[in-house]
Amino acid sequence: MLSAIRTIDQFSTAIGKAFGWYILILTLGTCYEVFVRYVMNNPTDWNYDLSYNMYGASFIMAGAYTLSRNAHVRGDIIYRLLSERKQATIDLTLYVLFFFPGVSALTFAGWSYAAKSWRYHEVSIYSPVDIPIFPLKTLIPVAGALLLLQGAAEVMRCIYCLRTGGWPQRAQDVEEMETAILHEREFMATHDEIEMAKGHAGEKA
Question: What is the pTM of this model?
Answer without folding.
Answer: 0.78
